[in-house]
Write a structure and sequence with these properties.
Blueprint (H helix, E strand, L loop, with lengths): L4 H16 L4 H21 L15 H5 L7 H16 L11 H4 L3 H13 L17 H16 L11 H10 L12 E4 L6 H9 L5 E6 L2 H13 L6 E4 L18 E6 L34 H11 E12 L8 H12 L2 E6 L12 E7 L8 E6 L5 E3 L2 E3 L2 H13 L8 E5 H6 L21 H6 L2 E2 H5 L2 H6 L1 H7 E5 L2 E4 L6 H6 L2 H26 L7 H16 L7 H26 L6 E6 L5 E7 L5 H8 L1 H27 L15 H10 L7 H38 L5 H43 L3 H21 L5
Parallel strand pairs: 1-2, 1-4, 2-3, 4-5, 6-8
Antiparallel strand pairs: 5-7, 6-7, 8-11, 9-10, 12-14, 13-14, 15-16
């Protein structure tokens, strides 16, 4: 049976991290990822003629496994595996597997490397059938490991990885998905790190493109080369060196090579950017027409390198700190010249604390040379508020990514608090300052307290008008909830207790909810058919993409409901459950196989903890086939709860100092029975005996109920277990698609509708309570209460 993807990633990370010891994660990642690389190329290319990667005889993962436990394992890995593999494929800067300062010495290094190799012997890590479209175990496992290593590497060492969510945005906004691409189409990353951003852009192209990257750090550039091979781009060119001082991609005449698309996530505010370079005499003339960046601020140096590296029709995107948008002096001159040239197409402000290595907020500056001569405006997005917390970092959700990409690609400025097309004339009036808050006010409107409303009573009409999206859907509902007070003010037309039923039972609101239910039911029906048609070797990433895009389109233009919120519910369920299920189906087909849950206790003995089925959990079988038995069990559980509650009530009632249970150290069957024997002939203890006998009767009833419940649950468990082999493929599809997937998605989306309803109810109630008691009324009430208190104090002798 196929292992679940989520379990594979987490166990792979946990196992590797456990063996790390005191080594820095930024160094340890090199060893782990080299092992992943050796495993992948061995599975995919060993023995394959004319393969793009050469596996020398004796240098495969199988040969590495043979070295486990040997006292010179580290030296042998270097000499027999890594060395030959690197030489045969022109790979440099591979980590030293015999470095005692990192891996330990003696038996420690033997054990660590042996255990590390064992992790990659997992049968689920079989890359021999790895697909070229990125829908594979490897690509996601690599991303998972890189993200965790970056998170663990600390502030100064996490720059080797651009969060995949940001990479996806950049890949989708530079226009490569719209371009006609082929092998001659070039994509370049001048600060490519481990290459993840470069690969994301390549994945967005409709056809295979040629990738180029340069990375300053030797070890990381080696990692990028391996990453290209791991992701089926063995012909990608990755070179090592300082991009600004020594750009490695040049033409025959020494000029910078130019590319169709350029993306980068350079080091923020690099203070050493000019090391090895005379900016005033730059042989590549990157600063000649724009200005020289400040000596201690390298952000524009990287951006100008990108501009110079783009063809006349080229497009690019660069992640930079917000300072580039508003800093003055030399940077202001560069910014002005870039704007006047028309090179800046757009700016996207991102949330703070997204990147590994820094917590400051960043932005994406989008460059477009092709349409520069006609550009009259710059499109801006303030996406700083859309994110989720993920441990110590923030992370973009799927809905945040989709919204950014949709808004940018469509130049959608319908929400002025989120995005806006800003004319160059307006920017010029602001002295070419591009700070996003100057052009987009994304602050939420303050909930203003109306002084006249507090003094004279009445709900301000402006507050009710602010609920216009609801009145657009239910125009008569406003008249049901509010009535006129005086010009500009309204009163609640129903009691506060009646607000919720007045909304939920209003014909217009009922009609709206009904229409929303029908809308989802329509999507549910045709999605059910699509999902039931999944077959072995289906591509889960394609499945979720088509399903999610269809859902998003289905809810586009619908009033009140946020289509991106609906979309996120689906993507959350995909991440937690549906993704694993789809990969199980892709591997094994529509099979519902049970397996025993075997755990090893402290004594090393295996203990059977029951059974499970990943694709169809037991509750689904019970709900569909054994609902009567489940109902009977729940009824017994309710009776048991009632009996337990009665016993607890009796113990509370009779447990006082003089109560019938006061003589007992602990109220249990043994003590109660013993006490009853003691007072059997004591006529004065009749009341005590009655209470004790009543408790004992309930205790016996509790014992019988528990036994009956245990027997009933065991019978139900056996019935459910026996049902799995009887399931036809059609039964399995119904259980998985209708009862599991779509039922869960429906619950989440109906919950979204309920949230919308509750927001209206809450706001109306809040406004009613805020203005229901005018200040004069409150003053009179205070005076009245003060007078009453004074009377009481006088009676008590505290006032004359």
């Amino acid at each position: 049976m196929a292992i679940k993807k989520s379990e594979l990633y987490s166990s792979l990370w946990a196992s590797c991290d456990e063996l790390r010891g005191g080594m820095d994660a930024s160094q340890y990642k090199d060893y782990v990822l080299v092992l992943l690389f050796v495993k992948y190329v061995s599975d995919k290319y060993a023995g394959v003629p004319y393969a793009p990667i050469t596996i020398p005889e004796g240098a495969s993962f199988k040969d590495m496994v043979a070295l486990k436990g040997k006292p010179d394992i580290g030296d042998q890995i270097n000499k027999k595996i890594i060395g030959p593999l690197a030489n045969a494929n022109k790979l440099s800067d591979m980590p030293d597997f015999n470095d005692p300062s990192k891996l330990g010495s003696g038996q420690e290094i033997v054990d660590r490397l042996t255990n590390l190799i064992s992790i990659f012997e997992n049968k689920a890590l079989d890359f021999s059938k790895n697909r070229a479209d990125g829908d594979d175990i490897l690509g996601d496992a690599y991303e998972y490991l890189m993200r965790h290593f970056a998170a663990e590497s600390g502030k100064s060492k996490g720059q080797f990885y651009t969060p995949s969510e940001v990479s996806r945005i950049m890949a989708r906004i530079i226009g490569i998905h719209e371009a006609v691409t082929n092998n001659d189409t070039t994509v370049y990353d001048p600060t490519c790190g481990s290459g993840s951003l470069l690969l994301k852009v390549g994945d967005e192209a409709h056809a295979k493109v040629t990738l180029y990257g340069q990375e300053k750090d030797a070890a990381t550039s080696g990692l990028a080369r391996m990453n290209m091979i791991l992701h089926n781009n063995p012909t990608a060119e990755i070179k090592q060196g300082n991009t600004l001082a020594n750009p490695r991609f040049t033409s025959d005449d020494g000029q910078l090579k130019t590319f169709d698309f350029v993306v980068a996530n350079p080091p923020f505010s690099d203070k050493r950017w000019s090391t090895g370079l005379d900016p005033l005499n730059d042989p590549h003339e990157r600063f000649k027409h724009f200005g020289t960046p400040p000596a201690k601020q390298g952000d524009f140096a990287y951006l100008l390198h990108i501009v110079r590296s783009l063809r006349s029709s080229g497009k690019g995107a660069c992640i930079l700190p917000h300072g580039v948008l508003f800093r003055g002096n030399a940077e202001a001159d560069i910014r002005r010249n870039l704007i006047r040239k028309g090179y800046i197409k757009g700016i996207i402000g991102l949330p703070a604390n997204l990147f590994y290595g820094t917590g400051i907020p960043a932005c994406i500056v989008v460059i477009d040379k092709e349409n520069a001569h006609t550009r009259k405006s710059i499109f801006m997005i303030d996406a700083s508020a859309g994110f989720m917390k993920d441990g110590p970092k923030n992370r973009l959700r799927d809905c945040d990514i989709h919204k950014i990409v949709d808004t940018f690609n469509r130049r959608d400025d319908s929400d002025p608090k989120y995005s806006r097309m800003v004319g160059i004339e307006e920017i010029e009036k602001n002295d070419f300052n591009l700070n996003i808050p100057r052009y987009i006010d994304s602050q939420q409107a303050e909930d203003i307290q109306d002084i006249e409303g507090h003094l004279k009573g009445g709900i301000p009409s402006t507050d009710v008008d602010a609920l216009q999206p609801y009145w657009n859907v239910c125009p008569q509902l406003r008249q049901t909830l509010f009535k006129a007070n005086r010009p500009g003010y309204l009163d609640l037309a129903v009691s506060k207790q009646a607000i919720k039923p007045s909304i939920y039972e209003h014909p217009e609101f009922v009609s709206f909810i009904t229409s929303m239910s029908a809308l989802f039911a329509d999507w549910q029906q045709h999605s059910s058919q699509t999902l039931k048609a999944l077959q072995v070797n289906c591509h889960p990433k394609t499945v979720i993409h088509e399903l999610a895009e269809d859902l998003l389109a289905h809810y586009t233009g619908k009033l009140l409901i946020d289509k991106y919120a609906v979309y996120q519910h689906l993507m959350d369920y995909w991440a937690t459950t549906m993704q694993d299920d789809c990969y199980l189906i892709a591997a094994d087909g529509w099979k519902a196989e049970t397996y025993r849950l075997i755990e090893t206790n402290k004594k090393g003995k295996e203990v059977d903890k029951g059974w499970a089925c990943d694709l169809i959990p037991k509750p689904l079988i019970v709900n569909r086939y054994f609902a009567t038995q489940q109902t009977a069990i729940r009824e017994q559980e309710a009776v048991l709860e009632s009996v337990v509650a009665q016993m607890a009530e009796m113990e509370e009632e009779h447990g006082g100092e003089d109560g019938p249970f006061s003589e007992l150290d602990k109220v249990n069957k043994a003590n109660v029975s013993a006490r009853l024997k003691e007072i059997k002939h004591d006529h004065e203890a009749k009341e005590e005996a009655v209470a004790l006998n009543a408790w004992l009767k309930l205790n016996t009833q509790e014992t019988d109920l528990k036994k009956n419940l245990k027997d009933a649950e065991a019978q139900l468990d056996a019935l459910a277990y026996a049902q799995y082999p009887k399931l036809s493929e059609a039964d399995i599809k119904t259980l998985v698609v209708d009862d599991k997937w779509l039922a869960a998605i429906a619950a989440a989306i109906y919950g979204e509708m309920d949230r919308i309803s509750q927001m209206l109810t809450q706001r109306v109630k809040e406004l009613a309570e805020r203005y229901e008691s005018p200040l004069p009324t409150l003053t009179d009430k205070v005076a009245d209460l003060s007078a009453k208190v004074a009377v009481h104090l006088k009676k008590m002798g505290f006032l004359q």
